[in-house]
Amino acid sequence: MKHFICIIICTAFFFNKTVLAQQWEVGAHAGITGFMGDINPSNPLYFKSGTGGINTTYNLNPTWGFQLSYNYIHLHASDFDDKNAYRNARGQSFSNKVNEVSLRANFNFFRFIAGRELNRYTPYIFAGLAGITHNPYVKFKDGETIKLADLQLQQNNNISKTALAIPFGIGFKYNIKGPWSLGAELGYRTAFNNDLDNISSNYPNKDQAEGVRGNLETNTPPNPPPGLTSQEWFAIAFPTGENPADYYGKPRGDGGKRDGYMTAGITLTFTFISPRCYWWN
What percent of the chain has pLDDT over 70? Predict the structure, then answer.
């Protein structure tokens, strides 16, 4: 009789579209991040910073689910970490604070039901769509933060601070006990944006650079961006250029149209379950 009543109650919840046992879960995640783009175009294990976020998942059944997530993702990369002679000599670096909201589908290879001994672990894959906001920056030695997007450091400097991205990856989750599950996840995002590292297009041309430096012969005052001296602007635009004129108008990026970033970390989730209704199919 108790089992029959339990089934009736859970069925009623289903037909009334209320919270059904096992269908909803909430969680948090933290881990490390890496960047691939004009800086680091080839190393998928280049992890240099960190991430954290929260998520909620609606499980259609023990195999399929949809997850809505918010992630704060910090990115950092430097040419000095690259063994390629050109990129190492270029000397560019950046950091970026990325805010990401994503909706993705999860597919479990094994049936997964929290709190049930026979269905307590599974590998899974995921893919979806994300929207991001970002603003690349560098820090000087004195700790001053300089935002890069509005500094006209390159030709065609139309920097977009928003973008769409495609997240995809793999993971593994294990039900520790009752509603609590622990997981590990590795993911990658392809962004429809080439501005995450603020490197693309070409170096500033001669007229643009001279407009910042000013004409010393005619005593024309320099015209650097607000908050920067001309020396600081040149140090950012041409970080290792002893003679910036050698770089005027030449390619600054690698020609790629999209930047990307990766995350690896752990997840902790709580599933809203009924302690007696383990019949969910």
Answer: 85
Contacts of 215 (CB under 8 A, 6+ apart): none
Name every residue whose Cβ is closer than 8 Å to that of residue 53 and which is 6 or more positions away in sequence.
Answer: 28, 29, 30, 69, 70, 71, 72, 100
What pLDDT, on the 0 to 100 scale, is given for residue 159? 85
Give the pLDDT confidence of 57-66 residue by residue, as tens digits. Answer: 999 999 999 9
List domains and CATH numbers for the chain. 25-202+251-271 (2.40.160.20)
Closest CA to 130 of 95, 96, 98, 97: 98
Asked if residue 279 has pLDDT above 70, the reply is: no
Q: Token digits for 236?
A: 């950012």
DSSP 246: G
Provide mean pLDDT across the span 153-161: 84
Angle, CA of 47, 49 and 52, to the nearest 5°: 115
Question: 29: number of CA atoms within 13 Å, CB side?
Answer: 30
pLDDT at 234 over 50: yes
Task: Give the helix ranges, DSSP H, for the chain.
Answer: 2-15, 85-90, 206-213, 230-237
Token output for 134 = 């970002």
Residue 208, φ and ψ in degrees, nearest 5: -65, -45
